Amino acid sequence: MIILVVIIIGIGGYFGYRQINPIQSSPPEKKHEKLVVNEALRTLLYLPLYHAKETGIFERNGLDVEIVTGGTAANSFAAMTSGEAQFAVADPMYVPISNENSANTRVVAQIVSKIAVWGLTMDTTIKEMNKVTMKGKSISTQIKPMTAYTYTIRTVKDAGLNPEMDVKIIENKPGTEITPMLLKQANFAMTLEPNVSNATNQGARVVLSYPQILGDQIFTGMMAKQDYIDTHKETTIALLKSIQESLNDIYANKDAALKTSQKYFPQLKPEVLLEALNRMLSEEVIPRSILMSGDSWDKAIKVRVSAGDLKTTSSREQNVRVDLINEVLTGMKIK
User: Fold this and answer.
1) What is the pTM of this model?
2) Residue 149's CB: how many other CB atoms inside 10 A?
3) Mean pLDDT of 285-306
4) Are residues 254 and 161 in the same domain?
5) Hey, is 126 helix, strand or coil?
6) In terms of residue numbers, what domain contains 231?
7) 302 CB-side CA count, 13 A
8) Domain-embedded: residue 307
9) How far is C-alpha 158 from the chain's CA centre?
10) What mean pLDDT is predicted for residues 139-148?
11) Under a CB-based contact definition with an 8 Å cutoff, are residues 143 and 173 in contact?
12) For 240, which DSSP code?
């Protein structure tokens, strides 16, 4: 009888305890929305994208982002317009160009805010690339019509020289354009990071910087179709918030940014990556904000109108979801 009473008291005590302290079941695992972002190239310039993925920023904002490399800006943009990817990271001028042909696309963020091309030489007596130092010399760069080639031609013309007569342009596959200069088969090289830092770690010197010459001029953007943005506004906002948080962290925590760089570019020496990162941050090639200025946009448009790629100028407000970007930035701190 005594045993039965103890059992009853024990059972009653247990259920009384559970009423006060119910069993805590594990919360259901939160589902992350899957997105495909198609990048034009695998390049250190797209570090904000990689850093958001590597540090879990995308995941914390409810996103499962797959980064696919298209190989060219055209491939990246085509993947987005066809629906293979929800977003493209490439030349933002594809938006106004496509919109002139009845498309309906928009830029939703800037990823690279300046023309990231630098001029190099092994000659310690040369301080800058000008008419005197370039005339009769050879310049190694990427193949036409890549950005490094385009700005090589611009550098020659701006100096008052004829690129077909006054200099020798040596075209190379991307990543190999510094080799002729390092072998002293070319007097100069025009290239991007991390090739710049790879060359300077082998004795080359920077004698021209387009980020310094031109200032803000949007170079790479994140793009999407207008109808996708309209039907997936919260998803788009989560993505933009992630990129801004990534930019903030890159500027606030360079060690973490370097770690991401090493993960995505293991073939490069840490000292090369660190120098490249320092240059991109000090010259603000990696932007502090996902919102580009109107002046930055207008300068990029002017280049394309001059080249004949666009029939007429097209404003930032016509092509960029400034309203959405400002909504994201409201209340966020920019480092």
Assistant:
1) 0.87
2) 20
3) 96
4) no
5) coil
6) 33-114+216-329
7) 9
8) yes
9) 28
10) 92
11) yes
12) H
CB 210 within 8 A of CB 117: yes
- Look at strands 33-39 and 87-90 and give their pairing: parallel
The per-residue pLDDT for range 155-167, each reduced to its tens digit, is: 999 999 999 999 9
**Residues 260, 188 within the same domain:** no
Count the Cβ atoms, other than its own, within 10 Å of residue 6. Answer: 10
Q: For strand 87-90 and strand 220-225, is the pairing parallel, antiparallel, or unpaired?
A: antiparallel
Q: Say if 44 falls within a structural domain.
A: yes
How many domains are contained in the chain? 2
Same domain, 104 and 164: no
Per residue in 161-215, pLDDT (tens digit) is 999 999 999 999 988 999 999 999 999 999 999 999 999 999 999 999 999 999 9
Q: Of the candidates 214, 241, 264, which is a domain's last residue? A: 214
**What are the φ and ψ backbone dihedral angles of 233, each rounded to 5 degrees?**
-60, -45
- Token pair 């491939």 in the structure block, residue: 75
pLDDT score for 29: 59
Q: Higher confidence at residue 29 or residue 294?
A: 294
What whole-number distance in Å separates Cα of residue 169 and Cα of residue 140? 6
Least confident span in 9-23, 255-269, 318-332: 9-23
How far apart CA 192 and CA 206 sit, in angstroms, is: 11
With 0-12 / 13-18 / 19 or more C-beta atoms within 10 angstroms meaning exposed / middle / buried, residue 53 is buried
Strand partners, 224: 106
What are the C-alpha distances in Å from 174 to residues 74, 148, 278? 17, 9, 22
Bridge partners (DSSP) listed for residue 170: 140
**What's the rounded mean pLDDT across residues 134-149?**
94
Q: Which is it for the CA torsion 112, 213, 250, 292, positive or negative?
A: negative
Cα four-point dihedral sign 111, 194, 335, 214? negative
- 192 and 269 together in one domain: no
